[in-house]
Amino acid sequence: MSNLEFVPLIDSDLVITGVKHEDPLINKKLNIFFESLLPIRLDEKSDRNEYKKIENIEAEIFIGAKFVIESKSGDYSIVEGVEKYYPLLEEKIIPSFDNVNDLLKRGIIKISDDTIVFNKGHFEVGNVVILNGFKKVLFNEGTSIKFNNNSGIISLIPMHFNGNVQFQGDKATGGWLYILNTDGENIINGLSMTNVGAVKFPKFELTGALSIYNSPVIINDIYINNVSSEDAINIISSEYEVNNCSISDTDSDAIDADFSFGKFDGCKFRNIGIMGGGDAIDISGNQSIITNSYFEKISDKAISAGEMSNVTIKKVVIQDSSIGIASKDSSIVIANDVEIINSQDAAIMAYIKKKEYGGAEVIASQIKTINNDNMISDMDSLIELDGVILEKRNIDIEQLYKEQ
Predict the structure, then answer these.
(1) Under a CB-based contact definition with an 8 Å cutoff, are residues 289 and 312 in contact?
(2) Which helix (DSSP H) or strand (DSSP E) does residue 304 occupy?
(3) With left for phi above 0 and alpha for psi between -120 and 50, is residue 124 left, alpha or beta?
(4) Does residue 89 register a pLDDT over 80?
(5) 194-220 tens-digit pLDDT
(6) pLDDT tens string 296-353
(7) What is 104-403's CATH topology?
(8) Cα–Cα dist 72/80, whole Å
């Protein structure tokens, strides 16, 4: 008999609600064993470095098992109504080593007033940098770091960038930044990220090159170019403000914001979704405002609102996208003073993608379209243009997403 241990990797209400195995016999044994144990709450202990232990289980039945994980934060359920299966983790994913001393010895950082300060200069880093245990992290103007070996920075303490800071990956890998569970506000002024990939460990990968989880952030003047990750920026369960961002040449999405609230102003997006199917701004479970922004050559949707989002769009220009604005799954989009040029499929769409949600709405005014004025609503949704409700139609959503 063996012991099975779980550890929460994020500081959130994490719950294991089910278990599954491809072998029917083992699957039955697993479900019998776990019937009285589920749900397993991984946040019950105050010390999050401790494991949740289940004793006296046959090792052969949990090798290859997959667990249904539900994670909740704030008023939203990150996987509400959806089962996600994660393979068994046999060791900690995020390494626990402390490499601050190595950075000190190499002159990359200094410690001042309980603050980690990155010095001005050009440096190379080949290992994951984990920052914790101090008051904050400060990047001085003129700091430039080349990241090798898929390396990047994880920070569990607030970060402040003071302008003209450069992160460079190696052949579109590494160079990532992961900010999670910080107690204070993160301020990013003047950060450039080029040739970067997703947050990545040997057995774990996030979707974003800049990933922000459960941490308030204000971003001013950020430039991200040549991105191989699923998202250039991924924001989850956070309050955000993004001003003057420029994101270009991404394999997939530019910005993905989930279960958060905030605003985007003065942003520019170009060549988004080079590998196909990329949205410029993809919002789920959000309250967001998008203003004074420009979108060009977007392979999928310039702005996508889903899963009960409320989005306000004003003074935006969209050129050469598959779909200009999409409202899905009980979302409401209010759009005013928008110009949509050369949309391949539709300028505006409102529809249900996920059956557990209801219809979506777009309330639009002062919309200028060039070369494609299609505005498509399914039978359960609504598009109102300058006070007039447009005709509804049946939409084959599965076919729509196959074609994109």
Answers:
(1) yes
(2) strand 287-306
(3) beta
(4) no
(5) 999 999 876 678 899 999 999 999 999
(6) 999 999 999 999 999 999 999 999 999 999 999 999 999 999 999 999 999 999 999 9
(7) Pectate Lyase C-like (2.160.20)
(8) 8
Q: How far is 25 from 212, CA to CA, in rounded Å?
A: 41
**Residue 394 structure tokens:** 């049946």
Domain chopping of the chain, boundaries:
14-81, 104-403
Q: Write down the residue that tokens 């309050």 correspond to.
A: 239
The answer for residues whose C-beta is within 8 angstroms of residue 123's C-beta and 6 or more apart is: 106, 108, 143, 144, 145, 146
Tell me how far apart the alpha carbons of residues 298 and 304 are, in angstroms, rounded to a whole number.
12
Q: How many whole angstroms from its chain centre is CA 375? A: 28
Helices (H), 185-334: none
Length in residues, the chain: 404
DSSP 15-49: EEEEEE-SSHHHHHHHHHHHTTTPSEETT-SS-TT
Locus of tokens 């399914």: 378
Residue whose C-alpha is closest to residue 95's, from 201, 198, 206, 205: 201
Specify the pLDDT at position 80.
34
State the DSSP code for 354. S
Backbone angles phi, psi at 381, to 5 degrees: -115, -175
Q: In this model, does residue 381 exceed pLDDT 70?
A: yes
Q: Are 249 and 228 in contact (CB under 8 A)?
A: no
pTM for the whole structure: 0.78
According to the model, what pLDDT value does residue 84 have?
42
How does DSSP assign 210-253, residue by residue? Answer: EEEES--EEEEEEEEEEE-SSEEEEEES-EEEEEEEEEEEESSE
